[in-house]
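Q: Could you predict the 3D structure of Glycolipid transfer protein domain-containing protein?
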Amino acid sequence: MGVRGRATLAVIVIIISLFSLWLYGGLDHYWENCRKDSITEEHSTSLYGSNTWSEDNPPPLEVCPGQKFQFAYLLMHLQAAPVSTNDVLLKPYLASWDELIKFMETLGPMVGIISQEIETKTSIIRKLAKKEEEENNPQGRNASASHGAYVSVRSMIVAELERGFVNFDRLTESGCRTLLRLHRALLWLQLFLHSLADKKKEMMEHSPSELCREAYRLTLAQHHSWWVKKAAELAFVAMPERRFFYKLMCVRTQAEASALLNRVVKAIQIVYDRTQVALVEYDMLALP
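A: Sure. Here are the predicted structure tokens for Glycolipid transfer protein domain-containing protein:
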């Protein structure tokens, strides 16, 4: 099934899902159940405790109890990804995406459709890396983690260009083309998280659904067909309110949420910028 076919199916599934939620008491009831499953409703602890803090002197993130997605793990992987002066390690990069996928899954089944597509992309790169490792090390001996085509963004680009894996005229499942798709999606999520972190009154008046839709319009929508755009916009309709994100972050106020989110956004920016430079340097942005 092609992209248009999957998008059409997604639209149908989303509409049916929304209608079902309304029949069973509305979306508020659905999100209330989600919160009970993943987060303690009454006494949510704050990552910041009672100590004084500021955005210039942030405390270390701790694991937020009782939930699958952890901002602490996301930040840890993002900070481990940059290497040398201009490269990005693929292992922590993909681990960052594992956490971002969990983040999207907490936002409900509609956004979960998007996360499934992204997970497919991360699997492609991991399979390519595993295949190369098996070919170069058939005996299964412990190989150095610092060598190989799929160690970093730049090593992957150079290796796939040398091996003729990259095609600028037709679609292929090369690591470079797959990375470009992930790269675009990362910009969307970064802009969404940045919008959630914005404490200005005019931004606070917008719901997370509106912020996510606008972030999508400015980023991923530029590369999607009409059908895919409509499916994505419908997915954002059922996104939970801001209060849900506070609980997801284990914070109580917008100030605390902003401090946490800004740290994640800055870490994403470093990874994104390094990846962008590498993609531009090798003309990877032109991949179909």
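Q: Anything worth pointing out?
A: The CA atoms of residues 199 and 254 lie 7 Å apart.
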